[in-house]
Amino acid sequence: MSYIVESGASRSRRSRRRRALVTLLVVALMLFFAFWYAYSYYRSSGQAAAAPAPTCTTAAPAKATKATQATAPKPADITVNVYNATDRDGLAGKTASAVRERGFKVATVTNDPLQRTVTGPAEVRYGKSGAAKATVVLALVKGAKPVRDARTDASVDLVLGRKFTALAAPANQAPAQAGATASACR
After folding, report:
1. If DSSP codes are grouped into helix, strand and coil, which group holds residue 127?
2. If you ran DSSP here, which 8-state letter would residue 81 be given?
3. Which residue in 63, 94, 156, 184 has its CB near the most CB atoms, within 10 A?
4. Are residues 81 and 110 in the same domain?
5. Rounded distance, CA 172 to CA 166, Å?
């Protein structure tokens, strides 16, 4: 009888070893696929963030920029309402001063009358007739989100959000940067 007990014990010992080996292999495969997925995600995110190399084949983009600037309204023709949608005191006032320095007319400076939460840097609210003016105001804040509403006039609201830090660099600094790109292509 001791022989039967002994063979039963060795059989159960072998099945435990087999179960442990299978479990270990399953865990190893899961880890392998988890690392493979993370690596492929990391690799694809790095490729998407890479900036495209400048192309130096034609001067057509410069002509398109001049045509766009000719049709865009001038800051002096745009009246902006500056609203603060944050809990930072004086943010709308300081920003309104900077907007005036850029040549815009500033009408209203106060807290957001809609009392919405703006999680990004800013929202530019406008109606159908203010769409062209809104594109100029959108350039004031990098990452600003356009929000079209039902207003019938051409007014434009600049609503400052939680992530707002400062106005974007003035547009007159862009040609210097374009010149640097052109010199790098020579």
Report:
1. coil
2. E
3. 156
4. yes
5. 17
Considering the domain architecture, whether residues 85 and 145 belong to the same structural domain is answered as yes
Q: Supply angle C-alpha 51, 52, 57, rounded to 5.
A: 145
Instruction: Please check whether residues 44 and 100 belong to one and the same domain.
Output: no
Residue whose entry in the numeric block shows the structure tokens 């600049």:
158
Q: Note the pLDDT tens digit of each residue in 114-163.
A: 999 898 999 999 999 999 999 999 999 999 999 999 999 989 999 999 99
User: Strand pairing of 122-126 and 156-160?
Assistant: antiparallel
Structure tokens at 29: 């495969």
**Which pair of structure tokens corresponds to residue 102?**
């850029």
Q: What is the domain range of residue 128?
A: 60-173
Tokens coding 18: 């087999």
- C-alpha pair distances (Å), 55 with each of 36, 176, 182: 35, 17, 9
Same domain, 46 and 95: no
- Max CA pair span of the chain: 105
Residue 185 is assigned to a structural domain of this protein: no
Residues 101, 168 within the same domain = yes
CA distance 118 to 112: 10
pLDDT of residue 48: 44
